[in-house]
Write a structure and sequence with these properties.
With about 325 residues, the protein is an alpha/beta fold. The protein has 10 helices and 14 strands. The strands form 3 sheets. The protein has a 6-stranded mixed beta sheet, sandwiched between helices. Strand 1, helix 1 and strand 2 form a beta-alpha-beta unit. Helix 9 packs parallel to helix 10. The longest helix has 17 residues. The radius of gyration is 20 Å and the shape is globular. The N terminus is likely disordered.
């Protein structure tokens, strides 16, 4: 043996991800951040098919009922099983898919820098929500999006829409079932269907001739808690993996999503509770806004609060109390 030769094993991290195009882009971003911070770290990707990926024939609510799992579990169940078994060390999620309360053996270790948070209306030509004709059929699988649409445009028809982002765009382009669909801006940007910076009130969708996109302002059409953020989940007992995740985390995003997710926890809200919530940082202050629809129907309650930026839990509690 060569004197003073370093014989310590190369650190290794197994990264679990769903197999959709968007999920793989998010996994690549995670791996790139790890490579930049830890060049000697061996990174192994494990693609895992989740219940939500397998069951695209029915609504998410029906999938959850059929599988006997809570609604958000349809996109995380198998990834958490892989964490449990040691098959993976770190799970990469679209944060809005992750429940606000995890089992004690798991932890949300970090979040990456957030992408744009807005919802986007994609149409065959209408340049705004107001331009959609009466009775237009709008595709979405989100109760939050559906309720806001029904409130803003009660004349529209909501049609269930499943599939990954490219599949949903193709359904709009090729299928007369839909006149428009709603998607998250983050996914469209990450998959290069839209540029990160908005260029016009309505914009062409790249590689989808005939489709145009309208980014809906978050203070008019409230996004989901955690929308646009990538969450990194580890075993609570796995300190090394948690250290790797925390090292690539983004603090400002963490403060914002902590406030948003805590508000949902206080509200006891899940995937099928129609609530939109978003935050922004202004200097040393965090602004948190929510729009909550009664489950029995009717107009929503809306409120905005402001607190010190380093007190996201207090911001969530203040907002919750203002709407109680």
């Amino acid at each position: 043996m060569i004197p003073n030769e370093d014989t310590s094993p190369t650190p290794r991290l197994i990264i679990g991800t769903r197999g959709s195009e968007l999920a793989l882009v998010q996994a690549t971003a995670t791996e790139g951040a790890l490579a930049a911070m830890f060049p000697d770290l061996e990174r192994v990707r494990n693609v895992i098919k989740t219940t939500g990926d397998r069951r695209t024939d029915v609504s998410l609510n029906e999938v959850a009922k059929a599988e006997g799992i809570f609604d958000k579990g349809v996109f995380i169940k198998e990834l958490e099983q892989a964490l449990d078994s040691g098959e993976i060390d770190l799970a990469v999620h679209s944060l809005k898919d992750l429940p606000t309360v995890l089992e004690p053996r798991f932890v949300l270790a970090a979040v990456l820098r957030r992408a744009p948070i807005r919802d986007v209306l994609v149409t065959r030509g209408a340049a705004s929500l107001a331009e959609l004709p009466e009775g237009a059929r709008v595709g979405t699988s989100s109760v939050r999006r559906a309720r806001q649409l029904e409130w803003l445009r009660p004349d529209l028809t909501i049609v269930d829409l499943r599939g990954n982002v490219p599949t949903r765009l193709r359904k709009l382009a090729e299928d007369d079932t839909y006149d428009a669909i709603l998607l998250a801006e983050a996914g469209l940007v990450r998959l290069d269907f839209l540029p990160e910076s908005q260029s016009a009130p309505s914009e062409p969708v790249a590689n989808m001739p005939g489709l145009v996109a309208v980014r809906l302002p978050e203070d008019e059409f409230f996004p989901a808690a955690g929308q646009g953020a990538i969450g990194l989940e580890t075993r609570a007992s796995d300190a090394p993996s948690r250290v790797f995740a925390e090292a690539i985390g983004h603090r400002e995003t963490w403060l914002r999503v902590t406030a948003e997710r805590e508000f949902l926890r206080l509200l006891d809200a899940g995937c099928h509770t129609p609530v939109g919530v978003y935050s922004s940082l202004h200097g040393d202050r965090i602004h948190l806004s929510a729009r909550v629809f009664p489950e029995s129907g009717g107009a929503p309650r809306t409120a905005t609060v402001e607190c010190p930026a380093d007190e996201p839990l207090a911001a969530a509690l203040t907002l919750y109390q203002s709407l109680s």
